[in-house]
Amino acid sequence: MSRKTPEMIDKVIELLTAQLGVLQRREDDFTRILEDMTRLQSSVRAEREALGSKITELESQKQPINWLPTELLVEIFLIRTEDESTDMTVGLPYNPAPVVISHVCHKWRQLTLATSRLWSFISYRTSHWRPQLLSVFLQRAESSPISFNFISTPSTGTSNNMNTSALEAATSIEVIRTLSYQRRRFRSLTFECGFAKSMEHILEGITRLYYPLHELESLDLAISTLDPSFEGTQLLASDRLSTDQSSPASSVTLRHLRLQQMPLSILPAFLVRSIRTLELSYSPKKSQSRRLHHFTFKISHLTNLLRYTPQLHELSLVGVTPAWDVITRHPTNGQLSLSHGATEPHNLVVVSSFELPELKHLEWKYAYHRDVFPLMSLIVLPRLERWDLFIAQSPTKRSDATQFRGNHIHDQDSFIQAEPLSNVLVLHALQELDVNCQNEDTLGSSLRQFLFPSLAKLDVTFVGQHIRKASGLPSLPRLESIFRDPRLPHLTHLSISNFDISPGHGKSMLGYMPNLLSLTFGTCTGVNVVLDALAEAYGCAPTTGGVRTRSCGVRVCPRLEDLILWSCPDFDFRTLWSTVHARSLAPDDAGDEPRKEALEAEVFASAVLGRKIRPLKKTHSSGARPSQQHLDPSGLWASTSSRSTLIPMQEALHPSRLACLHLEDCPQISHHEALSLGRWGTMVIYR
After folding, report:
1. 434 vs 180: which has the higher pLDDT
2. N or C: which end of the chain has fewer CB within 10 A?
3. Given pLDDT bands bounded at 50, 70 and 90, which one contains residue 60?
4. Would the pLDDT of 418 be above 80?
């Protein structure tokens, strides 16, 4: 084989180089085509994803929940996160609301993780220490103000209470240590423990960390066990609040304080000066026998605490049955008198009445009637507007000497006491009174020494059916037996529940309420008595033709507009019809023509009274009347106490129309009968 010459090799190389260039150009074309295809593929994919997201968005618009804007969704989530009273929290050591919301859909998960406020409501419900539960929520809460709840309720009746107490105490120490790094962010703190030892560690941490807690507005300290033992703690060492003059009282922001089964002197005085709402909750005690290492609620404890709360607006006492260990100093003569229940003159505390100038709402649940007036007489309440009172049945076994029946001024159990006028308390600003009782006799013994000159709403309910031995409902006492002054000229709303209205009581009761606008009876018997009183005519007057006479006007409550009856089984349709008809502006039974206004009030009055009524002449004095606010306070009270409950004749002859009649669970009245009352211009609600 002949060897190729260099010229031949160069020609072959030149040929191959030309072919290689062609292939390179073709490869570049293919690369450019592939890039264009990839670009087209990416654009198609992006367009497909955009169309898919639009379809998903349109599909989501079918659900009304997705119509809401993001800001409104966040507010709804916050409301759900704040509420931990549902069954969702049972058995979980943390607040599950933000976790559950984040698992609904992708949109809600992004929204939940981006909203730090949803993670600021932190709950820790276990006596075992699990740091990861706190770290996740604290991290996601970022810089939002924190509301923290520590609830550790050990199971009762276990044999290892010592181990449970030690475990809970150790966990409380770790919780306080972890929270100390976030102390400037706390808005609300709630600690509910099963043992007093754990609460002692928590109180030490709060006292130590309070100075940086400038944003704290609510504090809740509770022991879940009934009548807990404080053995091994120093919580009962002091009976008075500590007063540290170096405390920064000006920086205190605490507004709400709740103590459950806790001593009242556990917090420093500067901490309670700014609170607006105070709730004290304890298990009621039937006897005041003292047990070692157990807390005894004393009146001296309560008065010492309330003296440091000048800004208090709402006070709630739940199960407070205090032991009376005080001697009252009269502000007028400075003499000392033994307060009710304080039978032993040893180790008594001398107290004087004090004022809560801003208190507007007082709630006292499960109060013994013998304690109501003595406690209220210690506190001056110039702005009290609402009083909710639950009067419990006193224990049958009584050890106090003051519990024997007799003529004792300071004995609230005595139904024949002859208290002097100095033992009468006037609540000038009180407008709403809600009274619940377990024994009808306690109404008078609890309220007999009070005067309510401005009372506008009264609600009386009997709640002692479970302890009542007699069958049937108890009889409602007469107003003269309940109140020292039964006249209620400013009363506009009256509600009575679970009582029997005695014959003759309806008219006498309503006669004290000339300005009543709304009347409610719930689960009452004897309602016919009240309806008869409401339907009683003022008198008879001739019709426009003068042929015959007809009844006109009413005797009681001419301004009544709303009548509500629920679960009242013993009144009939005839009496109800008479009540509505007597207060209607419709024609009488003889005809259907509208009543003419030509018959004036004096014509009615002349016909009813049998003599001509002439209007009084106008006085010559045209000067303006002095304003009520410049009158002497003593004179103002005198005029208020002597105000008459007589009804003006103009109102008696022209009563207001009964605007609304509400019937619920009254089977003796049929639906057709109820709706037939609408022809008199009354709106009827039948259920």
Report:
1. 434
2. N
3. confident
4. no
Please spell the DSSP secondary structure of 535-550, one letter per residue.
H--SEEEE-TTSSSEE
CA distance 432 to 492: 10
H-run or E-run covering 174: helix 161-179
CA distance 465 to 105: 51
User: Pairing relation of β-strands 146-151 and 121-124?
Assistant: parallel
Whether 343 has a pLDDT exceeding 60, the answer reads: no
**Positive/negative CA dihedral, 527, 532, 533, 535:** positive
Q: Report the DSSP beta bridge partners of residue 148.
A: 122, 189
- Read out DSSP for 597-656? TTS-HHHHHHHHHTS---PPPPPS--PPPPPGGGS-HHHHHHHHHT---PPPHHHHHSPP
Residue 220 backbone zone (phi > 0: left; psi -120 to 50: alpha; other: beta): beta
Alpha-carbon radius of gyration of the chain: 38
d(CA 180, CA 208): 10
3-state DSSP assignment of residue 668 = coil
pLDDT at 498: 95
Q: How confident is the model at residue 443 (pLDDT cuts 50, 70, 90)?
A: very high
- For residue 443, give the nearest of 403, 410, 415, 401 by alpha carbon: 415
Q: Which residues have C-beta within 8 Å of that of residue 21, sequence separation ≥ 6? A: none
Record the tokens describing residue 193, joined without a space: 């423990």
**pLDDT for residue 357 is more than 50:** yes
Confidence of residue 191 (pLDDT cuts 50, 70, 90): very high
What angle (nearest 5°) sits at the alpha carbon of residue 183, between those of residues 181 and 184? Answer: 120
C-alpha distances (whole Å) from 470 to each of 49, 464, 574, 669 are 77, 11, 31, 29
Contact yes or no for 409/420 (Cβ under 8 A): yes
When pLDDT is cut at 50, 70 and 90, the band that residue 265 belongs to is confident
Cβ–Cβ < 8 Å for 587, 681: no
